[in-house]
Amino acid sequence: MALLEIRRVTRRFGALTAVDEVSLTIEAGEFFTLLGPSGCGKTTLLRMIAGFDLPDSGAIFLDGRDLVGTPPEKRPIHTVFQSYALFPHMTVSQNIAFPLKMAGKSLDEIQTKVKEALGQVHLEDKGGHLPHELSGGQKQRVALARSLVNRPRVLLLDEPLGALDAKLREEMQIELISLQRDVGVTFVFVTHAQSEALALSHRIAVMNEGRVIQLDEPSRIYGYPLNRFVADFIGKCNILEADVVEASPSGVTLQVKGLGKVTAPPREGAKAGERGVLALRPEQVRIGAPDSPHDLKNHFTGRVHDLLYIGDVTTYIVELPNGTRIEALLPNSAPGRATFFEAGDAVRVAWRHDAGNFLRD
Amino acid sequence: MRCASHGATMPGIFCVTRLGPETVTRWLVTGPPFLFLLVFFALPSLIMVVASFRYPGEFGGLAPLVAVRPGEDAGLTAENYGIFFGDWIYFQILLKSFGIALLTTLACLVMAYPLALLIARSPRRHRDFMVLLVVLPFASNFLVRVYAWMIILGDQSIFLRPFNYVLAHAGVEPLSLLFSRFAVIVGMVYVHLPFMILPLYTNLEKHDPVLLDAAQDLGANAWSRFWRVTFPLSLPGVFSGAALVFIPVLGMFAIPEILGGKDDWMVGNMIKEAFLGTRDWPFGSMLSIMLTLAVLAVAAAAAWLAKKGAARA
Amino acid sequence: MRRSWWLWWASLAVYAFLYVPLAIVVLFSFNDSKLNAEWVGFTWTWYETLFRDDAMLGAARNSLFIAVTASIAATVLGTMAGIAMHRYKPRLLPFMVLTPVAMPEILLGVSLLVFFISVFGEQSLSLGTVIIAHITFCIGFVAIIVRARLAGMDESIFEAARDLGATPWQTFRLVTLPLIMPGVIAGTLMSFTLSIDDFVITFFTTGAGVSTLPLQIYTMIKVAVTPEVNAVSTLLMALTLTLIVIASRLAPDALRGQG
User: Fold this and answer.
1) Min distance A13 CA to chain B CA atoms (Å)
2) Smallest Cα–Cα separation from A156: which of A51, A37, A9, A17?
3) Which residue ranges form the domains of chain C, and what is each CATH number?
4) Cβ contact (<8 Å) for C164 and A78?
5) Scanning every residue of chain B, which has its alpha carbon at the shortest distance from the alpha carbon of A13?
């Protein structure tokens, strides 16, 4: 039996449907992420799991028990809020002790558990401090410790890393993964940062406009996006309009607008004449000098229109004769060498016959 | 009606059945103050409105709504309003009150602005102290503040002696400032000045100094910078402060009574006289309703102007 | 920050305008002359007269009793109103709470006069009616301060408390109340000050035998002015000054938020 089951939950605000018949199950011990752009309903869904909002229809089951009618304080589910929500008038230790106090634990047990929690988030000597004396990252960790100290069945995290700067964010991501693994609590994580979702999760539910579009492991979502939205939202992607010329179990042949004939992996249900898009990841596009040898099925020539040097990789924007632009990613493996090609250079772009994806909208 | 702690707008029935304890808390918290004010504010106001349509009692107060003895005035009538609109003098006094209020407001604005500007531009750590200094005189009893001006403007006052000495030598009559319109205005300004300073300062504090730098960079001198940038942006604060001064002044009676002469009676004085002097309560109620309407009109105008000013900023 | 000299001078003049008249009142309370005209010599006479003046002492007792009672009641009701206005955003309550504060005082005074006598009879004006009147306009001040304090806080703190297992009552007791307490105390002090200093509303709602300090001062001003008025004014000023300073420490934004 799944730990948390969300069954056809719907929530409307006036004319707006924030959550539309969403169903999913979350297994015990997994790091599950709700990913989507602002307004897709992920936070609304989270709040309903926590008990701060009620579904208009549908139900939420924890360990098989319907949670309807159970107020937030009685649910064995805790939340890490985006603003951390630390009690400003209590010390770090008192903050962490709060849920234990509410559960009526003995003073001894509280003391032991608080000490253990502080150790787990590497804040052993900060117990007596007040929240305003801490840095953003430290507040973050106190919020985590506080929500985990009495081992809830599920921990909800509402974009907790949003306020941190890039470097701290990455450090916290790694800490979160190891924390979740050590403690074993099921995490339900909400974010709009797709790279974060890919890095942290066991499974991701990509949401848009109140619905779950795709639910899968990160690598499968990245490699086999279900539709144009997912392909575009996750990672970088070349999206090119394409019509199906021929479809067979071994692959589809597409007529890509502005490009020509392209082969792509097989797509279930694809029929000749169908209109859709070709989704091609920049790292799948090989870029080379116009006459260099290759054995790739799909190849075209063009000119480098622009390039973005990011240090470890460079993205080349290649313009083809008819105006179409394709992004190609090339690692800068030769140290000290800025780029392999300059703007204006003639280049050849190519990719495998089974790279890319034909997607519908 | 809202139920869950955030956001949701749900039909009332669903609220009660689905979030019982939440609704109970809400009524427990909202109820007592609401009930108290219903009984001791809303109800008296209503009674006053009705009272303005009644006859005065034989010995003062209100006549009964239903006639007890034959020949007695009873029931409702519009005669009080008739008196007001019938005799020019009442309207005159209302106009005079408006005039005094306007003068007071303008004087307060002129005096408050430099100080509010200074406080807003001072370093943060000084500001709270400077604001405190503005508020402290407010701590003194209102009558004391009026009384102070009795001392200063009185005929015996040592402060006026130099002026009168000079005037006497110039062959002009000595100034008798007390019990005059001038004294009333000075008193009004003195009592209400903090009410103009504070909203103005609150607004000016939020101005981005970069705007003035930009204006200067584009060639504006000090006066232009003030008139074209600072002042327009401060209009919401100006209107807030103006409302906070104008409205109370409109209803004042103590200051005209203490510092003014017979000629300086305002609406407030008439109301006081009606209730405690002649005991013609219906008439007093009617005057109070007129004052309320005047105040509402001013408040609405101030709100409208403030919104316009804010929209431009 | 730009600092122009004329701004300084104009401001100083305004500050002087605010304080000099009050300084004169205080000064002349020590003046050995019945007339508030010129300085003759230093004396404590007027303070002595004050403490022997039974009417004045009675009025002082009344003022204190009224202020303490009204401020406590207004604090309780005003805190509830402030919390209600912040959390539930009701439609009618803000209007009823804030109008007594915004309207000219005479309107409230007069309507309560009519109300009490119409409903409770001719003799009903008393200490009680004054207290009720004071509570009515003090509620608004407390509510404004409490609401401002709540508005400045991170909303998720209260949700976090419930999320971690606290019932709504526990949330209020352990989280909300400690956090709004400075505002609540500031509100009590402000109510106390307003009540002690109130003249207009008290004037209309007081009964025959009930006098308060401001009413006494008024009578003295109108009937026979002696520097005893200065003395009582000075003492009153000292009291309310202290209270306002304390209140400003506890809720610095409240003073600006007024209006």
Assistant:
1) 7
2) A51
3) 56-257 (1.10.3720.10)
4) yes
5) B8
Give the whole-angstrom CA distance, residue A32 versus residue A35: 10
Residues of chain B in Cβ contact (below 8 Å) with chain A: 4-9, 18-19, 21
User: Per the CB < 8 Å rule, is A54 touching B21?
Assistant: no
Using a CB–CB cut-off of 8 Å, the residues of C that contact A are 154, 156-157, 159-167, 170, 175, 178-179
Q: Which residues contact C96 (CB under 8 A, 6 or more apart)?
A: B34, B37, B38, B41, B42
- CATH match for B79-312 among 3.10.180.10, 3.50.50.60, 1.10.3720.10, 1.10.238.10: 1.10.3720.10
A99 vs A80: CA distance, rounded Å: 13
**Window from A55-69, A233-247, B28-42, B169-183 with minimum mean pLDDT:** B169-183
ipTM comes to 0.84
- Cβ–Cβ below 8 Å for A85 and C165: no
Residue type, A46: L
d(CA C220, CA C229): 7
Chain A residue with minimum CA distance to B18: A69
B64's tokens = 């009964």
Tell me the pLDDT tens digit for each residue of B221-256: 888 888 888 888 888 888 888 988 999 999 999 999
Q: Does A54 touch chain B (CB under 8 A)?
A: yes
Q: Please tell me whether the overall predicted TM-score, pTM, comes out greater than 0.90 for this model.
A: no
Q: Are C225 and C34 in contact (CB under 8 A)?
A: no
For domain A4-228, the CATH superfamily is P-loop containing nucleotide triphosphate hydrolases (3.40.50.300)
Contacting residues for A161 by C-beta, under 8 A, at least 6 apart: A140, A169, A172, A173, A191, A193, A196
- Bridge-based pairing state of the strands A31-35 and A186-191: parallel
| pLDDT tens digits, B210-224 | 888 888 888 888 888
Q: What DSSP character marks residue B9?
A: B
